[in-house]
Write a structure and sequence with these properties.
Rossmann fold, 12-stranded mixed beta sheet, about 35% helix, elongated, 10-stranded mixed beta sheet, alpha/beta
C-alpha cells in the first residue's frame, strides 16, 4: 500500500514538474515572440486576456487603465500535451493556456464542421469578451457579421454598449457589404493619413499623439463565407492582410464544408492568420502562421503549441459578461467624447508676438489650427500655397460638434490675427445663440443671431459693395488682387463671412433666394482676389423650395469639413462618391478635405474643444491687444430671437430727448428695427397727402401693442406739443392685460384723449365736423394758417361694436369715418388703425377703404395675403416681427423687429 502511495506521489510531482518545465519553456521562447507581453504580465493567470472563466479575477474585475500596455496574446482555451520526464515512468498530460497572437500580429481562423462549429462560434464570443475586458475602455470597436444566425451567434455581446459592439449584428449581404466598405475605408485612411511612413504601426501612432487614441477594430464573422460574395470575401482577406498595421484584425469561424465563392482560395485568408483546425478525434489542432513569425517564435509555436491539442473555452457565464459590461460601457461611451484642449494650440508665442507688435499678417492668406490629427495640428488654411482653397463648406448633424468647431475656428483666428488683418461677418440662421459670445469682438463687423433671410441678404449686398470698392482701389493701384495690393504697400484686411444654416436663403422661391444665389456665386467665384472668403455651414443640405446653389458655385468651395452625418448628407457636403462622414462616431470627429471633397483628400481629425468660459477669456486677451483705433470698433449685432431696443433708434431717441427736428415735410411713425443692415430704423412717412394712413393687423397682442405704441409715440414727438392732438381709442377688453397700459398715452406732451367704446360715435362725429371745417378752408391759405395735426389711433378696431354693419347697410358713423380716411390726411388728420384680422376688420370697413391705407403692417395671424399683395406668401412672420407694405412700393416688403414692451418703462420715465 505504501508503495502505491509513493508511486502516486512521484507521479503527481512529476506532473507538476513537467507543467512547470513546460511553462518555463513557453515563457522563455515567448520572450522572443513578444517581449512586451511578458512585461505586461499576460502570462499570469490574473490578466483578463488569459484568465480562465473560473478564475477569481472576474469577481473583482476592474477595467484596465491606458498605462498597462496592450495585451498581445488572447486566451482561446487550453493546450493539452503529454510530457515524459525521467522522474515519471509514463508520459504525463500537462495543460497550459492556449494563447493566440492577435493584437500586433494577425487574425484567427477556426476551421470546423458539424458540432465543432458551435464550439468555434462560442469561442469567437469568448475572444470578443476577453478583448473588451483586457483593453482600456473605448479602445475597441467590434464589427459583427452573422448571416446565418441573424445575430444569434453573437447574442452574448448584446449587453455591451453599441459604441463597442456596433449598432447591430450585420446579417443582410447589403449590410455586410456596407460594413466592410467602412472598415476598408477606415483602414486606408489610417494607413495613408495617419501612419504614412512616420509610424511603424497603430501602437506607435497612439503613443506619439497621446490625446486621441485610435481604437482597435476587430471584424468577427460567424460561418465564413456565409453572406459574402467574391468581392466582400476579398475585402475580408484584405483586412486580414493589411489591417494589423492600422489596428484592424479578423477573427472568423469557417464552415469547412461550405462552398467558397467562385475564385476564392481559403488559403489566401489563412496565410495571414493563426489557424485552429478541428479534427475528428483530437478536438482542435494549432496550425500557426509560421511564415509570419521570427525563427525563435516559429520554433516556439511549432514545438510547444503545434504538437498539442487545443480545447476551446466555452462562452463566459452571463454574470461575468454583465459585470464586464456594467463596468466598461459608461467608460467606453465617455471615451467617445474625446477632447483636444484648445490651449494645446493657442500658443503663448502668439500673445508674445501681439505684445511685441509682431502678429502675423493675412497678406498671403489665413492659417490657424482647429484640432489634431495624430501628433500634428490640423490647420485651417485659405488662400495659402500653390494648391490653395479659398472657401469652405462645413456640415454636421445636431450634436456633432459644429458649434464648437466654429468657436474654435473664430477664437483661433482672432488670437492669431489683429482686427486690422481680419474682419468677420457672422450670420446664424438657426435658433441657437452660438455667435452671441462674439457680439463684443472687435474683429466682427456683423454678428447676426437667429437671423432673418432679409438681414442675411443685406450682409451679402454689403460685401458685394465692399468688393466693388476694393476693385476700384486695385484699379487705382494698378494691381489685380489683394496679395499684389498688400505688396504695393496698401493696407487691407481679409474678410471672412460665415453663414450657418445657409440653406435658409433658399427656403422659398422668391426674390431673396434668387438674389442670395447670385451674390454667393459672385463672392465664391471672384471674392478670393479681393480677400473675401466664404464659409457656408449646415446640419443637412437638401433640396428646398428655392432650389440649391448651382453646382458651379459649390465647386468653388474647395475645402470641405464634414462632422457626423448620414450618408446622403456626406455625399452632398463632400462629394457624390464620398460617404466617409457616415462612419464618424463621436462629437468633434471630422473629415477635413481640401480637394473639393474627393475621396483621396479625406483626412480624419479631432476638433479641439473649447468652452464658453475659455472663449471669453481668450477674447478678453484679444481685445486687450487691440490698438487704439481698433478699440473703437463694435460689430453690428442683430439678435433675431429678441425684440428690438428703442434706445438703439438714435433719431427717435433724439426727438424724444431734444424735441422734434426742423425742416421735415413728413412725420415719421417708427415701427421697429429693420431686418437688414440699414442706417435708420423702419418708419412710415405720414404726410399731408392722400392715403397716408397706417393699418396694423395681427393677433399677437404684445407685438401689436408695441407697434401701435411706438408709432403713436413717434408721431407725437416729431411735432411740438402745441400743434397736435391725439385721440387714442382703447377698444381692448377691460380684463385684457394691456388695458391699463393705455394710461401711458396720457403722459405724452400733446393733448391726448383716451376714448372708450361708449364714446366712439361721438368722437368720430366731432372729428368729422373738424374735417368739414378744414375742407372749407381756402387751399391757397399760407402754411402758418393751417390747423394743428390730428391723429386718430384705434386699437382693437374689430371690437368697435357701434361700427359693425347691420347686414349690408353701412352705418352713418362709418360713412363719416370713410370720409376721414379719404380726405383727412391732406387736411392734417391721419389715422392709425390696429385690428386683429382682415376678416373682422372688413365687418366694419368697405373694400375700397383699404386703398386709403397707403402703409400696412402685418404680424402673426393677420391674413397677410389680403393686405400685403402677391408677395405675402413668401414671408413668414414670427413673434417680435412685422412686415411693412406700402402702395407706393408694391414690389417691396420690409420685415422689421418690433420694440419690446419693456421699452414703455423707459418712455414713461422720460415723459413723467
Amino acid at each position: 500500500m505504501q508503495t502505491l502511495l509513493d508511486n502516486a506521489e512521484r507521479v503527481r510531482d512529476a506532473h507538476f514538474a513537467a507543467r512547470s518545465a513546460m511553462l518555463q519553456s513557453l515563457q522563455g521562447r515567448a520572450h522572443s515572440f513578444d517581449e512586451e507581453s511578458i512585461r505586461s504580465g499576460v502570462f499570469t493567470p490574473v490578466h483578463a486576456s488569459t484568465a480562465a472563466w473560473s478564475d477569481t479575477v472576474w469577481s473583482g474585475f476592474a477595467p484596465p487603465s491606458g498605462g498597462i500596455g496592450i495585451p498581445r496574446l488572447t486566451r482561446v482555451g487550453e493546450i493539452s500535451r503529454d510530457v515524459t520526464l525521467p522522474e515519471a515512468p509514463h508520459a504525463q498530460p500537462v495543460t497550459i493556456p492556449a494563447l493566440v497572437p492577435i493584437i500586433g500580429k494577425g487574425g484567427l481562423v477556426l476551421l470546423a464542421e458539424g458540432k465543432q462549429l458551435d464550439a468555434a462560434r462560442d469561442v469567437l464570443q469568448a475572444i470578443a469578451v476577453r478583448m473588451i475586458a483586457a483593453l482600456p475602455p473605448g479602445l475597441l470597436r467590434l464589427t459583427l457579421v452573422d448571416h446565418l444566425g441573424v445575430g444569434n451567434n453573437f447574442a452574448l455581446l448584446t449587453p455591451f454598449h453599441e459604441v463597442i459592439r456596433g449598432p447591430m449584428m450585420w446579417h443582410d449581404p447589403r449590410q455586410i457589404a456596407s460594413a466592410l466598405d467602412a472598415l476598408i475605408e477606415h483602414m486606408a485612411m489610417v494607413t495613408q493619413k495617419y501612419l504614412k511612413t512616420q509610424y511603424r504601426d497603430i501602437e506607435a501612432y497612439n503613443a506619439a499623439q497621446g490625446v486621441v487614441e485610435e481604437p482597435y477594430r476587430v471584424l468577427a464573422i460567424a460561418n465564413f463565407p456565409a453572406g459574402l460574395d467574391i468581392n466582400t470575401a476579398k475585402q475580408v482577406i484584405s483586412i486580414a492582410q493589411n489591417g494589423p498595421r492600422s489596428g484592424m484584425y479578423v477573427i472568423v469561424s469557417v464552415d469547412r464544408k461550405a462552398a467558397m465563392p467562385h475564385g476564392l482560395n481559403l488559403a489566401d485568408l489563412t496565410r495571414f492568420c493563426t489557424v485552429l483546425e478541428g479534427t475528428v478525434t483530437s478536438g482542435f489542432v494549432w496550425r500557426p502562421n509560421v511564415h509570419e513569425l521570427s525563427e525563435n517564435a516559429a520554433r516556439w509555436a511549432t514545438d510547444i503549441l503545434g504538437r498539442g491539442r487545443v480545447v476551446l473555452d466555452e462562452k463566459p457565464p452571463t454574470e461575468i459578461v454583465e459585470a464586464i459590461a456594467g463596468r466598461t460601457d459608461k467608460l467606453a461611451a465617455d471615451k467617445r467624447s474625446v477632447q483636444v484642449p484648445f490651449e494645446r494650440m493657442a500658443h503663448e508665442s502668439w500673445w508674445k508676438a501681439a505684445t511685441d507688435g509682431e502678429r502675423p499678417t493675412t497678406a498671403e492668406g489665413i492659417s490657424v489650427p482647429i484640432g489634431r490629427r495624430g501628433s500634428e495640428d490640423q490647420l485651417f488654411e485659405l488662400s495659402r500655397g500653390a494648391d490653395a482653397v479659398h472657401h469652405a463648406l462645413i456640415g454636421g448633424k445636431t450634436g456633432s460638434g459644429k458649434s464648437v468647431l466654429f468657436k474654435v475656428l473664430i477664437t483661433s483666428l482672432c488670437t492669431r490675427y489683429s482686427p486690422s488683418e481680419l474682419e468677420l461677418y457672422l450670420v446664424d440662421f438657426k435658433g441657437g445663440v452660438e455667435f452671441q459670445i462674439f457680439s463684443e469682438l472687435r474683429h466682427a463687423r456683423v454678428v447676426a443671431i437667429d437671423s432673418e433671410r432679409e438681414f442675411g441678404l443685406s450682409v451679402l449686398d454689403g460685401l458685394l459693395k465692399e468688393k466693388s470698392e476694393r476693385e476700384a482701389k486695385f484699379k487705382a493701384a494698378e494691381v489685380k488682387d489683394i496679395v499684389a495690393y498688400r505688396k504695393s504697400g496698401g493696407a487691407m484686411s481679409r474678410i471672412l463671412l460665415i453663414v450657418d444654416e445657409f440653406q435658409k436663403f433658399f427656403e422659398a422661391t422668391d426674390r431673396i433666394a434668387s438674389r442670395a444665389r447670385a451674390a454667393l456665386d459672385d463672392l465664391a467665384r471672384v471674392g478670393r482676389s479681393f480677400g473675401i472668403h466664404v464659409i457656408l455651414a449646415s446640419q443637412s443640405i437638401s433640396s428646398s423650395a428655392g432650389g440649391e446653389l448651382e453646382s458651379g458655385t459649390l465647386n468653388q468651395f474647395g475645402l470641405r469639413i464634414a462632422l457626423t452625418m448620414n450618408e446622403s448628407d456626406s455625399r452632398r457636403i463632400l462629394s457624390k462618391d464620398n460617404d466617409a462622414a457616415k462612419y464618424l462616431s463621436r462629437a468633434g470627429e471630422a473629415i477635413f478635405n481640401a480637394k473639393n471633397g474627393l475621396v483621396e483628400g479625406n483626412i480624419k481629425f479631432q476638433v479641439a474643444h473649447i468652452d464658453d468660459a475659455e472663449v471669453t477669456e481668450q477674447l478678453r486677451r484679444v481685445n486687450e491687444q487691440s490698438d487704439r483705433a481698433e478699440k473703437g470698433r463694435k460689430p453690428r449685432v442683430f439678435e433675431g430671437n429678441r425684440a428690438a431696443t428703442i434706445r438703439d433708434n438714435a433719431k427717435l431717441v433724439s426727438a424724444i430727448l431734444d424735441g422734434p427736428p426742423s425742416g421735415r415735410r413728413f412725420i415719421p411713425a417708427y415701427l421697429g428695427e429693420p431686418a437688414q443692415i440699414s442706417d435708420d430704423h423702419t418708419f412710415v412717412k405720414m404726410r399731408r397727402q392722400s392715403g397716408d394712413n397706417l393699418l396694423l393687423l395681427g393677433q399677437h397682442d404684445d407685438t401689436m401693442f408695441s407697434i401701435f405704441t411706438t408709432a403713436v409715440t413717434s408721431w407725437a414727438v416729431h411735432q411740438s406739443p402745441q400743434s397736435a392732438q391725439i385721440f387714442v381709442f382703447n377698444l381692448a377688453n377691460i380684463d385684457d392685460p394691456l388695458f391699463d397700459q393705455f394710461d401711458f398715452f396720457r403722459t405724452l406732451p400733446q393733448s391726448v384723449r383716451v376714448i372708450r367704446n361708449r364714446d366712439v360715435i361721438a368722437t368720430i362725429a366731432q372729428i368729422a365736423e373738424t374735417l368739414e371745417e378744414r375742407l372749407k378752408q381756402d387751399e391757397d391759405a399760407p402754411e402758418s394758417a393751417r390747423q394743428d395735426n390730428i391723429l386718430l389711433a384705434f386699437y382693437g378696431f374689430q371690437r368697435a361694436r357701434d361700427l359693425v354693419r347691420d347686414g349690408m347697410a353701412v352705418k352713418p358713423v362709418v360713412k363719416q369715418l370713410n370720409r376721414i380716411f379719404h380726405d383727412g390726411p391732406e387736411n392734417g388728420i391721419a389715422t392709425i388703425l390696429a385690428g386683429d384680422t382682415h376678416g373682422n376688420t372688413m365687418r366694419i370697413l368697405e373694400p375700397k377703404d383699404l386703398n386709403e391705407f397707403g402703409a400696412r403692417v402685418a404680424v402673426i395671424g393677420s391674413d397677410s395675403g389680403k393686405i400685403l399683395g402677391e408677395h405675402a406668401s413668401s414671408f413668414k412672420v414670427r413673434e417680435h416681427y412685422g412686415v411693412l407694405y406700402e402702395l407706393e412700393r408694391p414690389d417691396l416688403l420690409m420685415k422689421f423687429r418690433t420694440y419690446g414692451l419693456d421699452q414703455l418703462d423707459w418712455l414713461k420715465k422720460h415723459f413723467a
